[in-house]
Amino acid sequence: MAQFVTLCQTDMPNLDRSAKANLLYADILTKDLDKATLEQWQLAEKHYRRAIEIYPNYYAPYNNLGFFYLKTNRFAEANEVLLQAQTHAPQSAQVLYNLGSASLKLGINDKAKGYFEQATRYEPESEAGLGSFGALHNIYGTGNDTTAMTYNLIRAMMHHPHKSFFFQ
Q: How far is the C-alpha of 22 from the C-alpha of 28, rounded, in Å?
């Protein structure tokens, strides 16, 4: 965390014109959402929006803002912003995983399945790709693909044991 704060402090003079600095600052503010204050949430959202304003073709601020909305139970807003991220990075497993999560929260399971399946196809060994295998297992539960999905869920947990998102 200290490295991020130092980097952010170095970039602070450029904050008004740097999408990357705004993104980094917002990411730092949202690092531990459970402990963040309302003011930190509002400031983070402002800086994600500023990053998008500065560089509208940069998918990361859309994705991270969408993830922030997911974590703060603003699912419709998450879905809207993540769809914008997808237009800039259509094969990003992280964007697709987040879109799948937003769709699940909105009760659009067919769309969620599609997003998770795409994430596993584009980046099967990435954290998001492997997490998508777990999400698909939770959606399908039983059937012909259960053994393969269980295997991939175990693989995902072995590659990324620190993540709990596999069992959302």
A: 10
Asked if 96 and 66 touch (Cβ cutoff 8 Å), the reply is no
Task: Report CA-CA distances (Å) from 163 to 88, 121, 167, 168.
Answer: 26, 21, 9, 11
The closest of 66, 127, 65, 70 to 93, measured between CA atoms, is: 127
Portion of the chain with pLDDT greater than 90, in percent: 37
**Per residue in 32-89, pLDDT tens?**
777 878 888 899 999 999 999 999 999 999 999 999 999 899 999 999 999 999 999 9
Rg of the chain (C-alpha set): 17
Rounded (10°) angle between helices 93-105 and 75-88: 150
pTM of the predicted protein model: 0.76
- Chain CA centroid to CA 45, Å: 15
Closest listed residue to residue 129, CA positions, set 145, 114, 118, 138:
118
Q: What's the start-to-end Cα distance of the chain, in Å?
A: 26
The residues, any chain, with a CB within 8 Å of residue 92's CB and separated by 6 or more, are: 59, 63, 85, 86, 122, 123, 128
